[in-house]
Amino acid sequence: MAQLQSIRGMRDLLPDESKIWARVEHAVQDTVHAFGYREIRLPVVEATALFQRSVGDTTDIVEKEMYSFDSRDGESLTLRPEGTAGCVRAALQHGLAFNRISRLWYRGPMFRYERPQKGRYRQFEQTGIEAFGIAAPALDAELIEINRCYLQKLGVAEQVRLRINSLGTPASRTLYVERLKAYLESRIDELDADSLRRLARNPLRVLDSKAVSMRKIIDEAPDIEDSLDDESRRHFQEVLKLLDVLGVDYQVDQGLVRGLDYYTHTVFEFETQLLGAQGAISGGGRYDGLVEALGGRPTPAAGFAIGMDRLVLLYKEMQGEESVSAADIIYCATADADSMGYLLHHVNRLRADLGGYQVILDTAGGKLSTQLRRADKEGATWAVIVGETERSASTLTLKPMKEVGEQQSLTYDALVARLRRVEG
Ligand code: HAM
Questions:
Q1: What per-residue confidence (pLDDT) applies to 99?
Q2: CB under 8 Å, gap of 24 or more: what pairs does 242-249 form?
Q3: 17, 35, 153, 300: most buried, per Cβ within 10 A?
Q4: Which one of 54, 124, 205, 269 would you pick to mutate in the ligand 1 pocket, going by the greatest count of ligand atoms within 8 A of its CB?
Q5: pLDDT of residue 66
Q6: E strand map for 1-136
């Protein structure tokens, strides 16, 4: 029988890889905490209708990328393709978006049935943040600043650039879509099949087309800026002004419309050239109409999500894998069954007293030489060995595993003091 494999586009992250992930996740989470955002944990499965009504019925995500299925009672459910919809749903359900300001962040797997390639997977990880109840442009600037902070922390800020645009209010956006539609219809003979389909369903999505044959047509499309009303213009100018004050580099890109339907006003993407075709590291913007569209009171909102798989790829590209140093390992062994209780007692104390170390107990047993070979394989820096002699003298033997050096017989306190000295 053929051996079972993981599903295409869904990866296992082995321990060496997850070590790097943990570092990247810490940098991101420390940043969002520092800005006062609080974690919300959301289900992976939601009602299919939630995504149809928020991301939009005619987006690529909803049309062809969702993992949807009927539950046993006939309800259509979907593995979440993104986090904003679920976060708004939860905020409404628990009163977090009504008459108050909420700053939330979440993390976890998202699912999209896309063609897998480097940086694009069918199960991928996002860290997202969403803020409810703030209409002012300062929030848009803050969201961008958060991105800059974790990128700097990880030493990759130089490799990432910010593109930004404004889609305006729902009314100005509708006006633009009409103009765009008229323009695309005037060049209908030049459109490829995919763009024809998008034109019929959702003209804004034509601007997302990556087809080379469409590039010129998209370049010559009407500028969205010309359709913005005064309020939208003011909002956008203020965001840009704040970015200037913060010293954030950006490029206004009229073609940036994002692939989800809920956006209004500011939209942005952080992008790198180092990862090939899948260069978007993080993306987001304002979505002032979504809370209301999902049944709440009108509530301004904005957020973004980081593609963690891509951020990790970029981090590795810049740092090299070896730079992530593991915690030092202390490997504890005994070949004397009667000494196991004595060893166990000390192993637990070591774990409590020596925070920076990993303390592994050899539970497989056997000859001491076999256990020390295992210690080597684990990459241990120290071995702590006990037998009858140590037990009766109330000592432990400390043996350096990576450097040449004598093993020493020490009291517990002396051993801890010795390892603390090394650690410091
Ligand atoms: P999005 O642009 O669809 O936005 O996704 C955000 C990020 O997730 C992308 O920039 C990318 O890094 C990553 N990503 C998307 N698809 C994949 C994939 N197949 N494989 C690997 N990474 C991927 C959203 O999802 C919005 N919910 C963001 C948002 C939050 N807007 C407002 N609040």
A1: 87
A2: 242/137, 242/138, 242/140, 242/141, 243/141, 243/144, 243/164, 246/141, 246/144, 246/145, 246/148, 248/141, 248/144, 248/145, 248/148, 248/162, 249/161, 249/162
A3: 300
A4: 124
A5: 98
A6: 38-39, 45-47, 67-70, 76-79, 102-111, 123-132
| Regions of the chain with pLDDT less than 50 | none
Q: Measured over all CA atoms, what is the biggest interatomic distance in the chain, rounded to whole angstroms?
A: 94
The Cα 69–Cα 190 span in angstroms is 38
Q: What is the pLDDT of residue 355?
A: 86
CA 73 to chain centre: 33
Q: What are phi and psi of 22, to 5 degrees?
A: -60, -40
**What pairing do the DSSP bridges indicate for beta strands 264-272 and 160-166?**
antiparallel
CA–CA dist 174, 265 (Å, integer): 13
**φ, ψ of residue 129 in degrees (nearest 5):** -130, 145
DSSP per-residue codes, 306-350: EEHHHHHHHHHHHH-GGGSPPPPEEEEEES-GGGHHHHHHHHHHH
d(CA 51, CA 62): 7
In the prediction, which pLDDT does 424 show?
A: 53
Which atom, in ligand 1's list, is nearest to the CA of 303?
33
Determine the distance separating the centroid of ligand 1 and the alpha carbon of 109, expressed in angstroms: 11
Report the 10 Å Cβ neighbour count for 407. 12
Pairing between β-strand 358-361 and β-strand 329-334 as defined by DSSP bridges: parallel
Ligand 1 shell residues, CB under 6 Å: 82-84, 112, 114, 120-121, 124, 126, 128, 130, 259-260, 280-285, 287, 303-305, 307, 309-310
Neighbours of 382 (CB within 10 A): 22
6, exposed or middle or buried, with CB in 10 Å at 0-12, 13-18, 19+?
exposed
307 Cα to the center of ligand 1, angstroms:
6
pTM over the 0.70 mark: yes
Tokens (6 digits) for 421: 């000295």
Q: Residue 255 phi/psi, 5° resolution?
A: -85, -5
Output the six-digit token pair for 27. 């940098």
270 CA: nearest ligand 1 atom: 10
The alpha carbon of 74 and the centre of ligand 1 are apart by a number of angstroms equal to 29
What is residue 232's three-state secondary structure? helix
